[in-house]
Amino acid sequence: MRFYFKAKDVVTAGNAVCGLASTVAVMEGQLYWAAWLICLSWVFDALDGTVARLTNTFNRFGNEFDNMCDHLTYGIAPGFIIYATYRDWMPGSGHIPMILACALGFWLPITASIRGARLASKPIKVKGFWIGLPRPVSAFVAVTFFQTSIFSLEPDLGRLVGIGLVFGLGVSNLGAFPFLSHHGHVWNPWVGRVITMVPISLGLFALLGPLAGLFGHAVLHPEAFFDLFFFWLFGYSLFGWAGIPTDDWQRVREAVRVWRDSPDPE
């Protein structure tokens, strides 16, 4: 039997480990670290492609394995964080709070699963774009919001806002709105400069905040990292379309229209 696991797949597995470890952190009541682990998974998600290019080991197994790991970490694990955030806050008595928290916590995993199944059964590929809000973005926006300084100022109000946020993210997962992709990117010149700032600023805030805090030398408040992460990704989910050149905007919208009007596969 051929052994499919390559160096790039070891890196990809780090993504899944972060998702699984995040779920364990939720069970241990460590929601801060659960959210941090979801964010950390982005490092592995970004590096596996680099390792694949350096080792020239692209294959179908790696693509499917990456998709499965993404779904675990970005589609499933955030639901546990959402559930734990709302479990003791929801109204009612007996099992009612648990049921309500489950309903909200299950929303993102279910919509992410529907999105994945839909695109697998009826693919659409448009150079430079994702169709529907990408699972990592919905995951990052959801889990970072509950750790921001905005949320901590008024947790009850924050949870009310969070309900609308989670619902909106799920709806965006199910939609067919085009979002800019870094794969075969098509964007206005200023977008590249903004994107360059994202990993640099997040890495700096992570080093000076959560990572330095592990050794008791944090320069930034830990919430600052989540504030910045939420700012970047929430801004992308709302305003990413602004970076699309007009001609390409028309091209992708026409491709989406044709895709939506085409018959569903049997």
For the biggest β-sheet, the strand order reads 1-2
Instruction: State the helix count.
Output: 10
H/E element string?
A: HHHHEHHHEHHH
Terminal CA distance reads: 33 Å
Q: Helical proportion? A: over 70%
Q: What proportion strand?
A: under 5%
SSE-based structural type? mainly alpha
Main sheet specs? 2 strands, antiparallel
Mean pLDDT: 92
Low-confidence runs (pLDDT<50, min 5 residues)? none
- Overall outline: globular
Radius of gyration: 19 Å
**Topology, number of strands:** 2
Describe this structure in words.
With 266 residues, the chain is mainly α. Helix content is 73%, strand content 2%. It contains ten helices and two strands. It has helices at 7-27, 31-55, 60-86, 96-121, 135-145, 149-153, 155-174, 189-213, 222-239, 246-261, and strands spanning 129-131, 178-180. Strands 1-2 form a two-stranded antiparallel ribbon. α1 runs antiparallel to α2 (31-55), α1 (7-27) runs parallel beside α3 and α8 (189-213) packs antiparallel against α9 (222-239). The chain is globular, with a radius of gyration of 19 Å.
Task: Describe the structure in brief.
The chain has 266 residues and is an all-alpha fold. It has ten helices and two strands, in the order ααααβαααβααα.
Topology (SSEs and partners):
Layout: H1 7-27, H2 31-55, H3 60-86, H4 96-121, E1 129-131, H5 135-145, H6 149-153, H7 155-174, E2 178-180, H8 189-213, H9 222-239, H10 246-261
Antiparallel strand pairs: 1-2
Helix pairs in contact: 1-2, 1-3, 2-3, 2-5, 3-4, 3-5, 4-7, 5-7, 5-9, 8-9
List the main descriptive attributes of the protein structure presented here.
single chain; 266 residues; mainly alpha; two-stranded antiparallel sheet; 73% helix; 2% strand
